[in-house]
Each structure stands twice: as structure tokens, then as C-alpha cells.
Amino acid sequence: MGGEPEPGKRWRGRLGPLLLALAVPFLAGGCWDRVEIIDRGFIAAAAVDAVPGGYRLTVQLVLPQSLPSPGGGGAGGGGAGGGPSVAVLSATGATLAEAASRMDEQVASRLFWGQTRLLIVGQALARRGIGEVVDFLVRNRESRLRTDLLVARGEAAPLMAVAPPYRDIPADNIYQELRKNLAPRLRAFEAAIRLREAGRGFLMPALAVTRPGPSPASPSTGAERRVTLPANPALDGAGVFVGGKLVGWLDGRLTRGALWLEGLGSGGTITLPYRGRPLSVLVERAQVRRRVLLAGERPSVRVDIEVDDTIQEVHEGELDPGRPELLRQLGESLAREIRGRALAALAATRRMGADVYDFGRLFAGRQPAYWRRVYTRWPQIFRSLPVEIRVRAVVRSPGRLVESLQLPR
Amino acid sequence: MREDWGLSDLQLLFLSFAVVAPTAILTLPRALALLAGQDGWLAALLALPAGLIPLVLLWDLDRRYPGQTFTEQARQALGPLLGRVAAALAVLLFALLAVVVTREVTDAVHGENLPRTPLPVVVLLVLLAPVSVLRQGIETLARWAEILLPIGLVLLFLLVAGSLRDLHPDYLLPVLGHGWTPIWTGAVQPASFYAKVFALAYVLPFRGDGRKGAFLAAAAGLFAGAVLLALTAAVTVALFGPLAASLPQPVFEAARMISVAEFLAHLDAVAVAAWLALGLTKLALVAFAFVFALADLLQLEEYRPLTLPGAALTGVLAAVEFRSTAEFQIWVFIFWPWVALALCILLPFLVWSGAVLRGRSGRRGRTGGTGRGGRPGRARTAPSPSLPPGGRS
């Protein structure tokens, strides 16, 4: 206050705060915790197997220098045709953290779990229980709670070494497959939630390697170069877990049936027999509503499934999808097909005593008094729980083509 | 000239909001999930009276002794000796509060972001901004709240919006599934945080507008904080279900999990920014109450000479007193809420009872005397220890 200071003084008075402000970015980095990005070893995916006395951890480590540079062109584009973009590392330890630490000793960079998208659990370990794996993943502050968990049909480690050419990082291929929502997904935090509730059932997408082989070459032109189809780890149904332990498997068809009941409208194509010939429809939209009912001490569940579809492929010559009543009939047989699949999945999981549909949680939320009385016996109750499934399927559109191409006249 | 530096109602609202908001992001959602399960949001709202009680008492005290700080009111209502004891207890309360808040901010930054950085260094960095603000004066503090809190709030709502897709409202059921007992147990935690609006006892005398507006603004800030807490409690449970009680900082984890179209992800830095904006404001406010109450108790002309020693004491205690985060969490969940709740309600209640017994009504004007004493609210002289319009050029 008190009049303007002379210019030089004013400048000097403001130099301090200015320098302080400039110092902030240097402090903000936190010198102790700084890790240069080139020193980080990004783990794209990890596989865990049980070995005597501990675990074997196998990872795909991204080699950034071999990734094709984005935007192509320039000097950096060389990697695409060259060697693989990942290195596969493996280490064992009494705990997963110990195995990870031993692996850290093998490479120059510091292994970083913050970009790990997949963690694959070997079958043997899954049968023993996935509690330790989930603990490691969730407790470790670096890792993402969204990391997808998968279970291998067999050992998990070999899946890390298979590199189909579809993506630069092999694990990405599996991840993109998961994103299509044709399989159940189980993220690390979801697994942790399910482990927190004793005896709860859940599904984990299963992974198996499709065999490599030569493509069927056309016999007429022998000179043609034969392409070898690559081995590819692909989704193959789901593992059924109760209380964190693998108790059985569902194949792809049953898995999708289970997804209907879980309230996750499954997408994709459904092929149903129509007058003895196949006909495919595409599920455009699905809505699943689930209700729990309690009559006295007799619980039951009602699942309402509503599906909108488009016809994808017609083989039957006499079918004229332009006629509304035909579409209605088609909708009815589609509803029967979906219902049948859901019932088959229900029967399979009942045999395992695995309520993978969270029906128990529905009761816990809506009938808390009943749930408190029965929750310890829930697996037994689930085995004989009446589930009413009602499906309403509407075929909205015949697709681009209205009538069959070969209508008999 | 002096008209300028009374705090506006909006600034008071933000300061009052700052008492609850940071904890709504950091520790309370977990405490609520732990004690009240899926009904934590309900406990957050039911605890609201705990914050309104001190505000109402302060309101009535302000009517009886307009424009005075709590220390002066205590001395007049309870007599020199008892009054000083009450004021000293207030100093102790705010000193402890400053230590707790410092440690909370530190643990969040240290644990989540800078685990390898030595704790004392983080404490130092955390205290740097609030101390420099305090040395500028209450007006700078109010303006900083006015600027930082909206930013923090916007970031926070972005985070909530980002996790909407993953919410399972089913986890919030059943409402009242275990009756009222867990809710009342859980409500103690937010109650003790709401009660800390008592810290405003040293800020409200600097109000620039009428008494009614100022106290209504403080109540509104408190209410907004409670709503925010109910929201974060509900969101974390809807997201993490039974796991919410096991994550030390569920809101950070929620932020970390956000993935909008695979593009917007790894937003923990945003959460830290939101948290720091709110947390540092609270720290500055509490530290202000601490040093100002101390200066007032010692009848100093100026509180500023106490800022650095006060901050040093706070920093050392925050760094040394608790050996681990776990130790601190036990202390802050089990012991501290009751102490804070009791002191924040009892102290104003005692002083208010004294005032009522003395039959002191609001009409009699100034008490005169020392020159440190009360002046009618709109007299615009600073309540002692006087605050020149700091930081303004």
C-alpha cells in the first residue's frame, strides 16, 4: 500500500514469487518417484500357473522399438515386418510378487503393471483357487482394476508364446475379442467383489489355442502360395467358479445361454432350424429383466428377455420374409431357441451348484430377511430353484433383401 | 477501504463446504461402507444435525456478542479463567485437527502417488501452500477457496459421470437391510466431520454482509458437503459393492478405473487434483483457526508470527506421531471422531450456556474495555488479532 513503489523495486518484489512459481513444476514430479518412460517395461499380458512350491509367472513384455510407429512413413516404420513386438519372460517364486521381482532382475527396464490388460490363470491353479492372484493384482497399486481375468484350458504359460499376426501385441488380439461382448468378462475388481462374498459363483472367460494348419489350397492351381494359418489363442466358453475355485466348464453355446440369464444381452448371430433348413438372425438389441419372487419360503426367479433381430441369411426357398406373419413365426421359434439355450446353461450350472447369475444377490437385495436365513444353504437351494424364463423375440427386419432369391413360383 | 475485506456470503459457503468436502472424497466413503454398509449414504444425511448444532450456537453467540471471535465470546460469557480454558481447548482441538488433516492429505499423496518420496518431504510440500496463504490473510484464504473449490468440484463430478456406466445400483439394496443400528454407528463418522464447521467460529466474524446471510451460507455449505458425501458414499458402494469397505481410498480407485471409450482412462491424476484443491483448502482453513485462536488466546496483536511455528509443529506431529497409515486410520476412525464431535459441540454449548446464564442479549452493544473486546458486527474493524487487508496491492 501507500503509493506505487518505484519500478525497479516493484520488479525485485515480484521476482521471488515468479521464481517460486517456476519451481513448482520441478517439485511436482516428485524426484524420488520419477521413472522415465523409456525405463519402464510394459507388461501387456501375464499368465500364472501353479508349480510345486509356488507360482510361475509368464508375461508378454512390450518392445516399443519393434512396434510400427503410428502414422507410418518416416524412419520409424521398420518394425512392422521385422521381429515380434513382445518378449516373453518367465519366472517362478513362492508368491506372485516374488516371481515378478525375479523377472524384474532379468531385464533392464522396470516392469510396469499399469498397462496390463489380461491375466490368464492356468487350469490347475484355478482349481486350487484364484484368491492369491486377485489379491496380488488388486493390492498392487500400479495395476489396473480393469485387468481382464481369463482361465486357460490347460497351462496358461504356452498361451503367452503364441503370436498370431493380427495385432502387433499378441495379447491385444484376445483383448479385442473380449470387447465384442460375446463372452462373459471378469475384471480384477469384479473378481475381488465376488471373492468377498463367500460361496458366490461366477464365470470367467476361457481361453484355448486353435491348432495351426495350412490353409485349404485350391487343387486346380498348385503353383499358388499356400498360407499357413497361425495358431491363435481364442475364447472358448467359460470356466465356472464357486468360492474362487474352478469347478467346471461351459462350452461356447452354453456360455452364451448363461449370458442371457445373467442379464447381459448377448450379441452375435443365432442360427435356428427353420423348416429343416438353417436360418441365421443377428441380435441387434436385447433387454433382460430379472425378478425374484418369494411365496412363503419358496423362492423363484423370473427372467424376461426381449430381443430385436434382423435376418442375416435364409436358405429356405419358400420363406418370404416380407410377410409379417412369417416374421412373427420366426420370432417365436427364435424365442424358443434362446429359451432352450438359457435352460441348458441353467441345467449345467445347477449341476455344479454355481449360481453364476447372481440370483442370490437379487434375493439379498430384495428379500433381505429371507436371505439372512438361507444364505449359508444357497448353493443347495439354487440347485432346485425354479426359474421361469420368458422370451419375446421380434424379428424387426428381413435385412437388405426382402424375399428369398429363389421363391418357387 | 476496510469494507472491501469482509468475506462475502459465497466465500463463507465455500469455506464451510471445505470442512466436509475433502473427507467426502478421501476417508469417509470407506468408513461409511465399513460401518453402515450399503446404507452409508443415509448415514451421511442423517448426521447433518451434528453440524447444524455448532452453527446455531455460534449464530446465537454472534447475536449476543456481535463481531467477536469465539475466544472473546468465551472470555466474556464464562469469565476470564473458565473462558481461557475453553479457548485453550479450542486451540488444542484445532491444532489436532490441523495435524490430522495434514496427515490425511499427506497419506493420500504419499501412498497413492509418491510412495518412494520420504514422508517428511511430502508433509513439507503439503504445508507449503496453506502456510503461504495464511501469511497473506483470511481474505486470500477465502479467495483461494472461491477459485479452487469449483475446480475441484467440477473434476469430481466428471469422475462420477465417468464411472456411471459401471455402477450396479443393486449393491445399494437392501435399504435398511440391517435395521437402524449400523446407520447410527456409521453416522458418528460424518457427524464428527460436520461438527468441525465449528472452525468457522474464527472466520464468521470476518463476514462482510449481514449475520443472517453469513450463517445461512455456512449452513448451505455444510448441506452441500453432506450431499456430496452421500453421493460419493452411494457411488463407491454401487461400484465396488462389498469391496468398498476394503479399499482405503475408494474414490481414487473409482477414478483410476474410469475408462470412457478406452480413450479417457487413468484419470487418477484428476482425482488427486480434485482432492488437493479441496484438501488444501480445508488444511488452510483449519490451520487458520489454529493459529488465530492461539494468537487470540495469548492476546497477541497479530497472528502471523505464529504461522510458521504453528506449521512446523503441525508438520512434525503429522510426520512423526503415526508410524503407519494403518495406525493413523485406527486413530482417526476410532478415537478421534468422538473427541472432535464432543469438543466441537460442547465448547460452543458451554460458552453459549454461560452467555444465557449471564442474561446477555444481543441489544446491549459493546462491552468496551480493552480495545480487544467486541465491536458491533458492522463496525468493520478487524476482530483482533487484527488482520490488515493482506496480500492486496
Tell me the fraction of residues in β-strands of chain A, as a range.
25-35%
Unreliable spans of chain A are 72-81
Q: Structural class, judged by helices and strands of chain A?
A: alpha/beta
| Helix-strand makeup class of chain B | mainly alpha
Interface with most residues: A-B, 22 and 28 residues
Major sheet description of chain A: 9 strands, mixed
Percent range of helical residues of chain B? 55-70%
Provide the CATH top-level class of chain B. Mainly Alpha
Query: Helical region count of chain B?
Result: 14
Summarize the topology.
The complex is a heterodimer of chains A (409) and B (393).
Chain A: H1 7-28, E1 40-51, E2 54-62, E3 86-93, H2 96-104, E4 110-112, E5 118-121, H3 123-128, H4 131-139, E6 148-152, H5 157-161, H6 170-179, H7 188-196, E7 201-210, E8 213-214, E9 228-229, E10 232-242, E11 245-250, H8 252-262, E12 269-274, E13 277-295, E14 298-314, H9 324-352, H10 359-366, H11 368-374, H12 378-383, E15 387-397
Parallel strand pairs in A: 1-4, 1-5, 5-6, 6-7, 14-15
Antiparallel strand pairs in A: 1-2, 2-3, 7-10, 8-9, 10-11, 12-13, 13-14
Chain B: H1 9-25, H2 28-36, H3 40-46, H4 49-64, H5 70-78, H6 80-112, H7 119-136, H8 138-163, H9 181-194, H10 211-240, H11 250-257, E1 259-260, E2 264-265, H12 268-297, H13 307-320, H14 325-357
Antiparallel strand pairs in B: 1-2
Helix pairs in contact in B: 1-8, 1-10, 1-12, 2-3, 2-9, 2-10, 3-9, 3-10, 4-9, 4-10, 4-14, 5-6, 5-14, 6-7, 6-12, 6-13, 6-14, 7-8, 7-12, 7-13, 8-12, 9-14, 11-12
